[in-house]
Amino acid sequence: MDLELSSSSINGDEQANVEVLKAQIESTIELDDALRAWLTNITYARFLRARDQSISKSYKMLSNTIEWRKKKSPEKVVCVACQKNPRSHSLRAIGVCKIGRPVFYSCFQVDNRNVEDNITHCIHLLEKVFELECTTEQNYIWVMDFSGFSAADLNPKFSVKALKMFQSHYPERMGIAVLFDAPRSFQALWRVLKLVVDTNTKKKMLFQNPAPEYPEFDKLFNRDLTDRLVLEIKSARETPQREFWLEGPVPPMEDMKMHGSHSEG
Q: Among residues 42, 61, 70, 100, which one has the fewest Cβ atoms lying within 10 Å of its Cβ?
């Protein structure tokens, strides 16, 4: 796995395909200002990468997402559940990696396991985090801590729906998924998830067990962000009712400006 692969550049061959796909979309689909602002060159490139540069397949995928965005207006979505209860969800942006990818952390010490609420939370996070100045890459790293994982989390409904949404409407957004301390019981769920996870996504899964040191973290993150992650992991096990979950904003995007700036050291 290439731990420092940039996703923000477009090579010459990709740019040629971007121009063809852009011309097809603009000549066949009515676009409002919000969609035109979203349809940057790198957005076209992400959909092309997801379909191995096939213009026809990328057009179909992108046109479906455009229709979804027209109906959903995801750029306006907020997580109402978190506004009511900050402990509803744990997934939040906590910094950026060495090359500028946003880093998400989550664990299963949460109050809300409602499928639709969780999907809304994910949409809100994905729409907002890539607008931040400190985010210079187009994909993210997700450290998924399995602390608090229970039988209630073995229902694949949320995972399957979320994966389908990510793959259909947020292609090439996930750079690396670090599955931390996944229990044996997760294997049954993983067998189901593998049926809906594409081959490229499977290659981005990095399983990590608890250890005295985390060399993979050191490759990905600057020291302050590694320390923050280790603190998160420790706190999830020792003090799951930790008070910083009550801090705003929700999700706390401002936190990213304080941890792991890619311009540091």
A: 70
**Single-letter amino acid code for the residue at 250:** V
Residue pair 42/172 in contact by the 8 Å Cβ criterion: no
Integer-rounded Cα radius of gyration of the chain: 18
How far apart CA 155 and CA 162 sit, in angstroms, is 13
Task: CATH number for 12-72: choose from 2.40.50.40, 1.10.8.20, 3.10.20.30, 3.90.550.10.
Answer: 1.10.8.20
d(CA 148, CA 230): 16
Max mean pLDDT among 24-38, 176-190, 209-223, 230-244 falls in 24-38
Select from 108, 112, 104 the least CA-distant residue to 85.
112
Question: Which DSSP state fits 77?
Answer: -
Comparing 74-78, 86-90, 200-204, 236-240, the range with the smallest average pLDDT is: 236-240
Query: Looking at this protein, which amino acid is placed at residue 105?
Result: Y
* Strand, coil or helix: 115: helix
